[in-house]
Amino acid sequence: MVSIKQQKHLKKLNANQKGKNNRNYKGGYKLICIDGKYIFEHRYIMEKLMGRSLNKNEDIHHLNLNPTDNRIENLVVLTKSDHAKLHAILRRCKNRNV
Ligand SMILES: [Zn+2]
Fold it and tell me: Which of 15, 32, 40, 50 is the most buried (most CB within 10 A)?
């Protein structure tokens, strides 16, 4: 389940990804259908890799900031607070055109 807070976060991260919100994408992220349920592909891939479920405090970050690039080398697990901090830093850099 995606909380409202997460949804807002995803929406913000993917403001430039509009138009991709069809059945196979949500907020710019790829969805896959497992056992009749749609789940985020990047979370599924990471859960398979780690051999356990992600807990509620964990987020997946896409290193190249492309939310559809779900190669293992592009994914990293962060706590929600670290993830938010990272994006705040990335935004700052972007605003300074670095
Ligand atoms: Zn991220």
Answer: 40
What residue spans define the domains of the chain? 4-95
- b/e per residue 56-79 (b: at least 16 CB within 10 A): eebbbbbeeeebeebeeebbebbe
Long-range contacts of 35-43, Cβ-Cβ distance < 8 Å, separation of 24 or more = 41/70, 42/67, 42/70, 42/75
Q: How far is the CA of 13 from the centre of ligand 1 (A)?
A: 8
Q: How far is the CA of 76 from the centre of ligand 1 (A)?
A: 9
Q: 67 C-alpha vs ligand 1 centroid, how far in Å?
A: 8
- Give residue for tokens 């990272």: 86
Tens of pLDDT, residues 31-66: 999 999 999 999 999 999 999 999 999 999 999 999
Count the neighbouring beta carbons within 10 Å of the beta carbon of residue 6: 14
Model pTM score: 0.70
